[in-house]
Every structure is written in C-alpha cells, then in structure tokens.
Amino acid sequence: MKEQLESLRNEALEQVKSAQDLKSLQDLRVKYLGKKGPITEVLRGMGKLSKEERPVIGQLANDVREMIESAIKEKQEHLEMEKIKAQLAKESIDVTLPGSPVQVGNHHPLTAVIEEIEDLFIGLGFSIAEGPEVENDYYNFEALNLPKDHPARDMQDSFYITEEILLRTHTSPNQARTMEAHNGKGPVKIICPGKVYRRDTDDATHSHQFMQIEGLYVDKNVRLSDLKGILTVFAKKMFGEDRQIRLRPSYFPFTEPSVEMDISCFHCGGNGCSVCKKTGWIEILGSGMIHPNVLEMSGFDPKVYSGFAFGMGPERIAMLKYGINDIRHFYNNDVRFLKQFKRA
C-alpha cells in the first residue's frame, strides 16, 4: 500500500504540473482528493492492515494528500496570474494616444441673448418677474387699458381656451400683476421674460410662439428722459458703444405717449445697407410712459406715480446680433445651426 500511495503521489504531481487551465486543475482535484478518489479508497482499506502498519500508512496518506493539495493550490495561483496577465495584455491602453474629445454643449443663441439682456437689466437695478403662460383675460387685456370692445385687441389675435382664459399674447400681464401686488406703493422696477402666443402664420419673420422681454419702472417723478437713458445703455451694451438711438411717435393702448425705438445700423454705421433697408436705422422695440388708466387699475395714484414700460423680442435681437435670416432656425433644433454658436 505504501508503494501504491507513492505511485499515486508521483502521478498526481505530474498531472498537476501539466495542467493547462483552471478547469483541468479542478478536475484533478476531484479525481485525486474527492470522496471517490484513490486516497480515500486507501484510507477506507486501512482496516485490513496490522496495528503496526496503520499509523505509518495513515501518516503517509495524509502527507500525500497535503502534497497534492499544496501542488494544486500553487498551480491554481500560477494559472490565475497568467489569466490576469493575458487579460491585461488584451485590454491594454496606450496612454500616450490622444483622448477622445469631450462634446461640450452650447448655449442656444436665444438663451444666450435672453441671459445677456437679463444680466444687463439686473445690473441696472431691475429684478425678474414671472407669471403664468395661461392667463386671465383681465390681466392680458383689461388691466392694460384694453377693454373687451377695444379695437386694438385685433392687433393680437389670440389663442382662447374659454371666453376668459387664453394663452398670453405678451408678458405685460406680469407687469399688471406685479404692480397690483405692490398695493399702490413704489418703486416697481422689473423685467418680464417669457414665452407668448399669437395666432400667426409661421414664416421667416413670424411665429405662433415666440419670446418677449418687457420692462417696467414705476416711481415718483419718472420721466421719458429716464426711459431714453435706460434704452441708450441697452443699445450700446447689446450692439456696440457707438450705437445711437432715436425715438419715433407710435401707439400702444397701455402707454401714453408711446414711442418706437430705432438704433443706428451696426452693419453700415448708418450709411444705408440691406440690413437697415437703406435707412441707416433698425427698429428694435416699442416703449412709452405708462398710461394713467393702467396705473390706476393696478392701484397706483397717477397723480403721484408715473412710469415707463418697454417690450422687445429676443428673437429679433438675436437675428440682428448674429445675422440670422429665419426665425424658424431657433425652434427647428438643427444641430448644425446650433453648433455655430460656441460657448463663451
């Protein structure tokens, strides 16, 4: 039996040494050390041995088992390390190669212009006021000196949900709501950016949904010259320090007097070109002194308080600023168009 164990040991160690993978090694473990393996069979037959032989053969069997287990463990560690090395070699990365560029998103040109305008007016002491896009007819029209039978309502063909609820046609309702919330006490100095909606045919210069930014300043002794000063600063910051402005008489139901603001053409310097239609001036926004009726309906005493308001379209400003010829580019989500406007 001693010779059998020694032969078994030599055979097992030789096969373990020759094993090429972990599966073969596991099969050898089961073959020699399993419950049905030859060492177990030897130990089961020890009852047939004499008392003198049992401890000798038992010790030898245990030694053989430990040698085989040790050889298998050592071989297993070797095979696992070889597997890791092979995997690392397969998945190796050349760190000297240039990395893949990170795609960084851009500000949408419309968002960039709106944020630029907001930053400008915040720097001038204005705060931002927001309101609902689904608006009450009273705040959208009546509180702005546009009663139900007023012909100027036709200037803003509206999306009505019910007879009294509609999608707002301008952000002026925010002005009325804010003034009302002040309970007749000034000052009120806000800008109101947001989406507005009108029943219009979409083309290169019109859209049924667009952005608007309106401004409002109410306090004691506010004058038209204050409005001109604010708008001059705006024009110079947005279109260049050499810009000039002019105010032309106009009509808006909620302001009196009302004026349109033009800026000297930034493309030709006022000499006349296709951008300014040979006039040297470009129309930018509408404005005026707040109508006494609007002040009164919002709780302000028009004999004590006065104010001005203005409204502009960020799309128009962005189109002029970046030379964009079609308003629909802002809403088509064409990545080729958007990639032209790099993050500052």
UniProtKB/TrEMBL annotation:
<dbReference type="Pfam" id="PF02912">
    <property type="entry name" value="Phe_tRNA-synt_N"/>
</dbReference>
<dbReference type="InterPro" id="IPR010978">
    <property type="entry name" value="tRNA-bd_arm"/>
</dbReference>
<protein>
    <recommendedName>
        <fullName>Phenylalanine--tRNA ligase alpha subunit</fullName>
        <ecNumber>6.1.1.20</ecNumber>
    </recommendedName>
</protein>
<keyword id="KW-0648">Protein biosynthesis</keyword>
<feature type="binding site">
    <location>
        <position position="256"/>
    </location>
    <ligand>
        <name>Mg(2+)</name>
    </ligand>
</feature>
<keyword id="KW-0030">Aminoacyl-tRNA synthetase</keyword>
<keyword id="KW-0479">Metal-binding</keyword>
<dbReference type="InterPro" id="IPR045864">
    <property type="entry name" value="aa-tRNA-synth_II/BPL/LPL"/>
</dbReference>
<keyword id="KW-0067">ATP-binding</keyword>
<dbReference type="Pfam" id="PF01409">
    <property type="entry name" value="tRNA-synt_2d"/>
</dbReference>
<keyword id="KW-0460">Magnesium</keyword>
<dbReference type="InterPro" id="IPR022911">
    <property type="entry name" value="Phe_tRNA_ligase_alpha1_bac"/>
</dbReference>
<dbReference type="GO" id="GO:0004826">
    <property type="term" value="F:phenylalanine-tRNA ligase activity"/>
</dbReference>
<feature type="domain" description="Aminoacyl-transfer RNA synthetases class-II family profile">
    <location>
        <begin position="111"/>
        <end position="340"/>
    </location>
</feature>
<dbReference type="InterPro" id="IPR002319">
    <property type="entry name" value="Phenylalanyl-tRNA_Synthase"/>
</dbReference>
<keyword id="KW-0963">Cytoplasm</keyword>
<keyword id="KW-0436">Ligase</keyword>
<dbReference type="InterPro" id="IPR004188">
    <property type="entry name" value="Phe-tRNA_ligase_II_N"/>
</dbReference>
<keyword id="KW-0547">Nucleotide-binding</keyword>
<dbReference type="InterPro" id="IPR004529">
    <property type="entry name" value="Phe-tRNA-synth_IIc_asu"/>
</dbReference>
<comment type="subunit">
    <text>Tetramer of two alpha and two beta subunits.</text>
</comment>
<comment type="similarity">
    <text>Belongs to the class-II aminoacyl-tRNA synthetase family. Phe-tRNA synthetase alpha subunit type 1 subfamily.</text>
</comment>
<dbReference type="InterPro" id="IPR006195">
    <property type="entry name" value="aa-tRNA-synth_II"/>
</dbReference>
